[in-house]
Each structure stands twice: as C-alpha cells, then as structure tokens.
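User: Some background: our group keeps a shared notebook of sequences we're curious about, and every so often someone picks one and asks for a predicted structure to add to the entry. Today it's my turn. The entry only has the sequence so far, pasted here. Could you supply the structure so I can complete it?
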Amino acid sequence: METFYQAIKMILVLLFGIGQMVLPKIPGGDFPPSEPVERGDEMKYVQISADDEGFDIWRPFEERGGYCYGLSMILNSDGSLDTWSASTGPGDLIDIVNYKRWSKDFKTSSKEVTALKPTAETYDRAWTCDPGTVKFGDYYYIGYTTTEDIRGVGNVACVARSKNPQGPFIEKWTGNGWGTEPAPLIEYTGNPECWGVGEPCFVVMGDTLYIYYSWSDEHGATTRVATADATDENWPATLRLHGECIPPKNGGDSADVKYLDEYGRFVAVFTEKRFSDESYVAVWESFDGLTFRPSGFVKANTCKKLHNCGISGRADGHIAAGDPVYLAYAYAGADSEGSWGNWATRLHRVTISLSDEPKLDDSTETNNDVIVTHRKGHLVPEVLTVKAEHQSYTVNKSEKIWIIAYDSDLVCFPLLTDLQFDGYDTSVIKTVGTTIIPVAPGDTRVWVHWHGFTGDFVVHVTE
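Assistant: Of course. Here's the predicted structure to add to the notebook entry:
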C-alpha cells in the first residue's frame, strides 16, 4: 500500500507540478536575533500595499464548507514560510491548529499536520484556535483562544510550546510552569456573557516580549498589550498588563503585530467592516509598542468579505529590510454563497513603505469581486491526520478502538490495516489488532501509527 501511495504522489508531481517537501524535525526560523533599532521618524507614516491580486492557499469544500483561517506566519532564512491556522477538528473538537511549511515559490509544501489541539478533560478541552506564533530561546510558542464555556463566550488566551515548528505543542502553561494542565495566560475579567479575551500575537524586543490580544466586551472590541521577561523560561509568570493600545474598531477583528526594523516602529494590521463588501485591512503603527495610531489601509487588490488577517515576519516578530512580506486573510462566507465558517484563505505579497501623510479615506478604492468556487474533490485524497475516534477511553473490559483518518475534504474514513500501537504501559493494557485489553487499573497514553502518520489517545482502566 505504501508503494501505491508513493506511485500516486509521483504521478501527481509529474502531471501537475505539485509535491511535498520532507520536513525535518528541526526549527526553521534561523535568522540571527534582531539588533536594537533606532526609533523611527514620527513625521512619516507606514503604508502597506498588495502587489497583486494574490492567490488562494486554501478553499472551502463543496457542500461541507470548512475553513483554514487566522494564519500566523514565520519567514525562514531559506525563504520558506511556516504557517499555523485554525481548522475544524475531528470528532468533538471544534478547532485545532494545523501547521504547514511552504517552499519559497509556493509550488510545494509539507504535509499539513496537527500542531496543537485541546487536552482532554482540561481547561482547553473544547478548542484551540486563533494561533499566534513566535520563537525565542529554544522554543516556539503558540498563543491561542479557548474557553470552558461551549457557547464561545468568556474566552481566555492560553499558550503552548514546542522545540519544533510542527509541534506537537503538548507543553502548555499551567499557571506555574509547563505541563499538560493548561491555565490562562491572560484571563478575562469582564462580562461573562461577552466574547472575552484571545487571538494573541507576539513580538520580541531585546529581553522583552510584547503580547497583543483582543479584548471584546459590551463596550466593543479593542486590542490590548502586555509585556513579559523573554529571558525567563517561565515568562508568563512575569506578565505585566498595560491595557488598551488600539481603541474599539469599526466592525474590526484581531490585530496581528510585527516590528519594522527598517522604519523603527511596530505595525499592526486588522480587518475593518469585516464580512462586508466594503471590508479592508487597516494599518496602524506605534513607536513604543504601547500606543498605536492609524496610518493607512489595504483595499486595492484584496477580496470582499475579508476577515482575520495576518502579516508575516521572522521568528521573533520582526520584519527586516529586504524580507519578502506576505499578507493573508480569510474571506467570504458570512452570507449569500456560504454559511458561517465557509471561508477561503488568500495570500498576497505586499510592499511596505513610508509616506508624508496618513492614508485614512478608503472610499475611493474598491475590493476585487472574487467569487469563491468550491473544490470538486481530488484524484487521491490527501490524508491530513490520523485520530482515534475519541481522545480518551474508560474501559473495564476488552474494547475495540476505531482509528480514523481525515482527508483534505474533511471526510473521515476508518483505518482497518497497517496500524501499529506502541508507547503504552504494558502493565495497564495490551493490544491485539485494534482491541484494547485491560490488564490492571491505571492510566496510559497510546500512540497509533499509520503510513507515517501518528496520533494518540488515553486509556483509563477501572476496576
């Protein structure tokens, strides 16, 4: 069977020029650390423009819809681009974070893998979404949104870490260290019936980590900022909250922030009038990272109904002179053609410059009238992930475990052959085929492997 898949992949490469890069288990953002930068000229205003109409890197599926939105992007020194996105999860998981590395020319990519997912029976058990990624020291960190309220209100921001960009990000901040029992990085203290806190992103400035996050309550949606000591392994414990840095937006959403080394300032992008035909990307700037002012917008060459945008940078959240810079956003799906969650994701190469005046009036520019067309399926489904049907099982007798694969159409199908189980405590269980046989009371994690894909689940054996 493995030979069959390799043959099919080779045919696709020859016919369509597509393929997959081999992804090494090593960090990718190997630029040297950013040097201190002089404060920029406050009489100039940063501008961002989309160089062309861009291209879709993900499209929803016929009949079922779907999404892969909220891209967090890190540029590597070889020109490749690491991306993390919120995607629909299998089973009871509403959102997970998937990872993919794109080649410099975007003609090939690594196999998409699940980098971060909820931990069963813990604070983030429902979902992990809205990723924001940074690397400093030995670790990549993903900040994400989660909540204990399945209605999606009272959200908080959490953070997980891994030494590899593709994860798995299984070490989560617990409140006093890193482990498997996640606790909020930033708590929400407002009206519990409102959306709350989330959508974090990060910038490293010397020894200081800047954390930007959304705060949404009955008074509107703002962006707030906190700082922490980037030299401390337990930096979440050093968090200092500085309050609002971008005021309530005009139908806007989360801000993604980077630091422009060439121009000596922070730049924030977020969408205004989201989901509408007049939507656009707002551009704000800051010289101290704590207070921002409007400086421009991106509307020409972009799509209508856009939302949840992000901008690429190096692993520490900086953009250096000469770096290729990419703007990404999800679009469409709030009405008409598709329902909520039926979104495409588009990427643009952008140019960053300075102007003598801010660019604030968007009334003279219009978006592209792009219609999202659904994919019609694949010659061979691309498997995205392998999972057990449930994240955990409580057993007191032999039980068959269903292992399923999710393909790129978000269709699941059972795996019946070529499965391998290992890593479990043999004093607690043993396996025969896909059947779990209890041996003695206890807990153990089980790893399942199928043609290079790996998943895991937990077994609790009772008396």
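Suggested note for the entry: The two ends are 40 Å apart (CA to CA). The first strand starts at residue 45 and ends at 50.
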